[in-house]
Structures are given as structure tokens and as C-alpha cells.
Give the backbone structure.
Amino acid sequence: MNVRSIKILLTAIVLGLASAAVSAQTCAPVPIGLVSAWSGDNNALDARSRYNGTIQNGVTFTTGKVGQALNFAGNNGDRVLIGNPLNLRLQNFTIEAWVKRSSTGVVTNSGSGGLFLAYGQNGYGLYIKSDNRLAVTQIGVSEKVSTLTITDTNWHHVAVTQTGVPFSAGDQVIFYLDGVA
């Protein structure tokens, strides 16, 4: 089976506004096998396929690591809905994002954690738990939690790779924070 990637190019701010501008940078070339990509450049369009998101409940835009970023204030259910598209129903995948917290004291006002990506019942989600650890979930089914934490307000590249039948005894999940597993 080919390993396909769900690459999230968005630069998400988990809570609040960015406090400093970031110098102009460019993204790396798009990898082969990329399924979907949301850059957050003043919209929620999927640059790779047709699974455009719908912005809801106060998501705004701000300066990102590269270009613009989606800004999630952490309350009122702010999100970008992408549904549960067929191209994201994979066994082997990588989800990655640039993220920046605006507060070291609060991950989200929802209490359960700050989601970077989550879609549909049984879909996958990548997030920071309220105790600052990175986690991946199969929505409504199970989660796997990393020992890696984000406790500062710097930009961080986060990723998770999943191989095998997701959330089964034989699967392999590896979390990355700034390129370190």
C-alpha cells in the first residue's frame, strides 16, 4: 500500500493573536502523494484537491510562519469545517502543521485541547492536549498521546505519522516536534 500524506500547510494559532511579525519565507516543494493542503492565506481553500473548508465562529487571519495563518481564538467552537472527505480516509498518513500558541497558560477555552485538524466521526485529529502534550485521535474512537509538549509561544512544526491499521495493536504512530521524533 502506498503511503499518502495529509499535509496541513496551515499555520494555525491555537489561541489568540500573534504578537510579532514573521519575516517572509517560502514553503518547501510539495511532496509526491500530497492529498490535501490548507495554507490559511486569507481563506480555507484546499490547494491540492477540492475539499475546501468553511470558516465558522470567529476564525480570523493573521501573520503566519509563511504568508497568512488561521487564527483560532479558542472559544465559541471556532473552526474550519472540511467534512469527512474520502481522500482523507487513509490507513497510512502524515499530518503536519506550523503552530503557535499565544499564551503559555491556556491551550484552549474548550477544556479538551487545541485542535489543529479534525474532521468527521472516525476521521483523524491532531491537537495539543490541555496538559501541553501532542496527541492524535480517531474522532469518537481513540487517541494516542505523545510525550512531546509545546509550552512556549514560538512557532513549531508538528507532525504525526501513522502506519498500519489506525489505532490498532499493530499500528505505528510517531510524533515529531520541530523535526525531532
